[in-house]
Design goal:
- The protein is 30% helix and 30% strand.
- It is built from 13 helices and 24 strands.
- A 13-stranded mixed β-sheet has the order 2-1-10-9-11-12-13-14-15-19-18-17-16, sandwiched between helices. A four-stranded mixed β-sheet has the order 4-3-5-6, sandwiched between helices.
């Protein structure tokens, strides 16, 4: 690749190494960028090219950076930067470098030698957790990811997800550069624009959130198909995975966590929970079967040998492939029997009128916990008729005690559904007290 060849493309604009050097030269008027070693910088830039050029510079120079989604309000960006121990915030169009006052009483460890990428976990409960990963650890992940994911060779990464998050930044953008291809970063998330980009690049590898992929497949023209789609972030419902698979040459699935990055890749996702073989630089432990699952735990070989507890329930099959079943916190224990929300949702999503469904738990004095379900349908459904329908397809302990039809299911800003929040909203302490009174009498 020469100095004038495009290194990457943002929407329709190609950028060369010369363009990157020019952008960095302008930013290096700030000392914290010119000499970033040992410093923490928060970045909330509107221009994705500017952020990606800066990211490559800081990575090469050993700086530490917290990328913040450009849609974040400025005051919230300041708070995130201070919470993570950043001394400066670069925001807007890159002209403003704002010094930050340290948060009182907050101890922040020194950055790792060679610098770090600072990320905020995207969990569904509580405040985000700060995760700092050394650039050397990310390079090791990239080496392992590119070597194992051979199905990506010859494909152009189309990154239709935030490049401020590790999925888009590491797996989509940096892995593409590592393979020697120019990634296409999409900031115009109009579905028709994305479908046009995919049509113009028939040998594509699409990185996108499951919610966006589900929208794209509904809008995909009959004469068009996906080449390769990578899914991550949440196991797709079985019916939707089948629909995407019928319109794509290949559907892949990857599994990871903020502390370790990508953990496993399934180059062909035949079932919602199949996450594939763990990457070779990791030691992964889990249950032995679907009937004997355990928490998925990860050790990054050659580092501190610290065990990373994912809070996910899963197992490794006889071929060494990882299967995800549910978040530990979302698993519903009905009279000692585990119910996985995805199993219940998949059944309801096969109903011809139901478009969305989410299962969650509610305390029950007799069974410990019971299954509840919220759903969106194209027309009003009678709950008793629906209950009879699901009893023909679910075991008794899987049948929801509560069926609630809604116009839309609330989602978090990151597009995920919080079953924990739904459970809290539907917890009825009065009903539990009535049950207790009945037992006492």
């Amino acid at each position: 690749m020469t100095h004038t060849d495009p290194l990457f493309v943002v929407d329709t604009t190609p950028y060369t190494r010369a363009d990157i050097d020019q952008a960095i030269k302008a930013l290096c008027r700030h000392r914290v960028i010119a000499a970033p070693q040992g410093r923490r910088l928060a970045v909330c830039l509107r221009d994705s090219f500017q952020w990606l050029a800066l990211c490559l510079h800081l990575k090469a120079q050993g700086g530490s950076v917290l990328p913040i989604n450009p849609g974040t309000p400025l005051e919230a960006a300041r708070e995130l930067a201070r919470e993570t121990g950043c001394e400066h915030l670069l925001h807007g169009d890159g002209a403003t470098l704002e010094p930050l006052t340290p948060m009182p009483g907050r101890h922040v460890a020194e950055p790792a030698p060679g610098g770090e990428l600072i990320q905020l976990s995207s969990g569904t409960t509580g405040r985000p957790k700060t995760i700092a990963r050394a650039w050397t650890a990310i390079d090791r992940e990239l080496e392992s990811y590119v070597r194992e994911f051979i199905e990506a060779e010859g494909l152009i990464p189309i990154v239709a997800c935030p490049v401020t998050h590790s999925y888009g930044l590491i797996c989509g953008f940096l892995a593409g550069l590592r393979r020697g291809v120019a990634p296409r970063v999409i900031t115009n998330l109009n579905p028709r624009y994305i479908l046009g980009t995919l049509r113009d690049h028939p040998l594509h590898l699409l990185y996108a959130a499951p919610t966006l992929v589900s929208l794209l497949v509904r809008m995909l023209p009959q004469e068009q198909s996906f080449h390769t789609v990578m899914l991550s972030g949440a196991a797709l419902p079985g019916p939707l995975l089948e629909t995407i698979g019928s319109r794509a040459r290949r559907v892949c699935q990857q599994y990871g966590c903020s502390e370790a990055g990508c953990i496993a890749i399934a180059p062909r996702a035949d079932s919602p929970g199949l996450m594939g073989r763990p990457l070779p630089h990791l030691r992964v432990s889990a249950g032995r079967s679907a009937e004997m699952p355990e928490e998925i735990r990860v050790v990054v070989e050659g580092e501190t040998e610290r065990v990373i507890e994912t809070r996910d329930l899963g197992f490794l099959d006889d071929q060494g492939q990882l299967h995800f079943l549910a978040r530990l916190d979302d698993t519903i224990n009905v009279a000692g029997i585990n119910v996985y929300p995805g199993d219940v949702e998949d059944v309801f999503l096969r109903h011809p009128l139901i478009e969305e469904a989410v299962a969650f738990k509610r305390p029950d004095l007799y069974a410990g916990e019971r299954v509840c379900l919220q759903f969106v349908a194209r027309e009003t459904l009678d709950s008793e008729t629906l209950r009879r329908w699901c009893r023909e397809r679910l075991a008794p302990h899987q049948v929801p005690m509560l069926l609630e039809q809604v116009e839309h299911i609330d989602k978090l800003p990151n597009g995920k559904i919080s079953r924990h929040r739904l459970a809290q909203a539907h917890c009825d302490p009065y009903a539990v007290r009535v049950q207790a009174d009945e037992v006492a009498s």
